[in-house]
Design a protein that fits this description.
Two copies of one chain form a homodimer. The first copy, chain A, is 59% helix and 7% strand. At the A-B interface, helix 1, helix 5 and helix 6 of A face helix 1, helix 5 and helix 6 of B.
Chain lengths: 171, 171
């Protein structure tokens, strides 16, 4: 028995995006308790030339849905980037997860050898499916998920490894 | 054809740890150019109750080697946590990568169904190998790799997505 591209993309991304939704729930609660506008957290960044929390969350989901769609040989669905509240961002994550779950394991059969072309500014990156998952999609999703977490921790939201790995659950 | 546990652990971790070594090289250069002690970067944190850069780098590697060893049914090799310079941290990463590369694909055959027991404080977490890789090892390695990157970016080291994904190379 070997493992599947579906298990290493849809399952992994669904789980971590669910955790991001949980970070955002804790962020909303933290802002309420500390009596400030949660929009301050949404606009927070770790450096002037890094993206703010809202964009980190949008991009984490977009990379996940884009990667799974491409691995399945589909065009990824496009979402407008118009969220202005934590509630709206959590709804976007839920829509993203719904899309991921709509892609059956059968659609990713053989995806490890599929040719993936990825527009990147003026260039087009080309990968085989497995390489795309290993070196582009997984690192990139976790980059934005972790940076969202780091922005919140830097701004005093009480989060720990259990929240990061498992949405606050024991295991 | 399916993909292997080896491809999704050894290959993924080797690649991302190589990128961390590259972040550290850029960090050393940045400290030199900006004329401050690089130890300041090694001690930097994103929050008072988060770990500093040195620990983020040590832990990223330890999780990778611990996870691959456990998936192979081995005890992970232990490294002393005694690095005090960027050069020493890069040497530790190189030792970690050497260990990862020493584990052949055959040692991870069937690892997806292996019972993994992980000491976690007073408790022991129990996983099947695939679940351990999906929900614990991969997210955890990328958590520490990204946080190392975020600490450096927060402290003005010039890094971008290409550095994160590919050690500064085009693709």
């Amino acid at each position: 028995m070997k493992i599947s591209m579906h298990a290493m993309s849809v399952d992994v991304f669904t789980h971590t995006l669910g955790n991001v939704s949980w970070f955002l729930e804790k962020a909303a609660r933290s802002a309420e308790q500390r009596k400030f506008d949660p929009g301050i957290l949404l606009a927070a960044r770790l450096a002037p030339d890094m993206l703010p929390l809202t964009r980190q969350v949008q991009i984490a989901g977009d990379i996940a849905k884009g990667a799974v769609a491409r691995l399945a040989g589909q065009e990824p669905p496009r979402f407008e980037d118009n969220e202005t509240s934590i509630e709206q961002l959590r709804a976007r994550i839920a829509r993203t997860v719904d899309f991921l779950k709509s892609v059956p394991a059968s659609a990713l059969e053989g995806a490890e050898t599929r040719d993936i072309k990825l527009p990147a500014g003026e260039r087009t990156l080309e990968f085989k499916g497995l390489d795309f998952l290993q070196r582009w999609a997984i690192p990139n999703v976790f980059f934005h998920v972790t940076t969202a977490y780091d922005i919140l921790r830097h701004n005093g939201v009480e989060l720990g490894k259990r929240d990061f790995l498992n949405g606050g659950r024991e295991q």
